[in-house]
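Look at a sample.

——
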Amino acid sequence: MTIRIELGTATAGGAATLDLEELLATRLLVQGNSGSGKSHLLRRLLEQSAPWVQQAVIDPEGDFVTLGDRFGHLVLDAATAGLTGLRRAAEGVRRHRVSVVLNLENLDVDSQLRHAAAFLDGLFAVERDVWSPMLVVVDEAQLFAPALGGDVADDARRASLAAMTDLMCRGRKRGLAGAVATQRLAKLAKNVAAEASNFLMGRTFLDIDMARAADLLGMERRQAEMFRDLERGHFVALGPALSRRPLPLRIGTVETGTRGGGPKLAPPPEASEAARAQILQAAAAPESKAPPRRLPPPPAPDINEQLAAARPAAVHAAASPSAEDEAARGQKLAALLREVMAEPEAPFRQPAVLYQDLLVRCRIARLGTPPDLPAFRRMLALARAGVEEAALAGDPDWPEVAAQAAALPEDTQGVYLLLARAALAGEACPSDDAIARAYGSRSAGRARRLLEWLEGQGAVVCRSDALGRRIVALTGSGRETAAGDPAAAA
């Protein structure tokens, strides 16, 4: 029996249907600029086919987690799972034939690529006896199979691209049918796009993308202009599972939605005189007289008091705890944080995820009132930089270093403190990998951009020696690191 699901209505009239069994054998490619309705199309496809075939969704933005409430999809939060765990989970998904959404929204781009690759590898790794049909939907496929390297780590890009190529090239014999959506065909690796035989092309504006869409649909180049005029939710379909001739269609309604929505127009409130006066006063404030490459002086209270907040606060009780109790509690909390950070993936997880891990450990250790999230972020910055404040407190330049660190955004303080620790100790300048790790990333490109940003803020000055090794100087104190190789392993 042929299973045909209804995608919507054809522009010329009548239902626009899709042969599900043919799709599983021939794969699908969807293109459309942001706002063209790609995610809506994928949601319609998933909802209509859910009763007939097992599904797996690679979801970089958390848009499809609501499928779990209506259709029973298992939602895997990749931010709480390691790479090995995801591979095992993917194998279990195939053995038990459970539909699943892999939510990647809480990871940075490098981690998204690594976790998606691990999950797809797990889908491939199962034994032949459990090769049942599965529809694998990948949203924003240009992220996981990029045509060019971009700013992501090379190992992450290679792993993800290999997994996506396997999905589209070798997946059919293993029961895996890829359905990928991309904003631009030019950004998607050609060996991934070329394996699809079914196409749904939505609104796009760039000439190169319109020309490629027309070529894929067998249309003349002069007809390519039509893709500029397509409305949201309107696509042109072609392929053995859809139509033998280009078929304009409108995607139908869906039962589920995203957890959020696009911004809605709302009239601004009537501004009060106090608000107007405050804005004008801020605009008329005099410029700082500080030198252009120096950070402004720290605000009250004293900076050492601000950094001291990184240590655990005393438990409020009827009687104030003694200094010895506070010291013991601080040592226990530091030990728990070291346990959290000792896990292999911990340096690359979001602070909120690490904070929840620390809270659980605090409850197990009966440590009393844990630090709040802002205090934990400051503790995390020190931990990622490998800075022990007590060891540096005796340095005469530490107060100025602490002041500049506190004036920076929380997510950059760890990197600045890493550089400052090396400068105060006279050690070699940290490599790009070490800087990226202190920032919570694996991207060396992101580390270099962050160094440029810190230099632009007047926090550091970078230079190279005759051998091309990097030296970083702290503004104000003039202390600088020894020469270090930027490409050295962390």
Remarks:
- The chain has two domains: 4-251, 303-474.
- Residues 310-319 have pLDDT under 50 and may be disordered.
- The longest strand covers residues 243-251.
- The two ends are 58 Å apart (CA to CA).
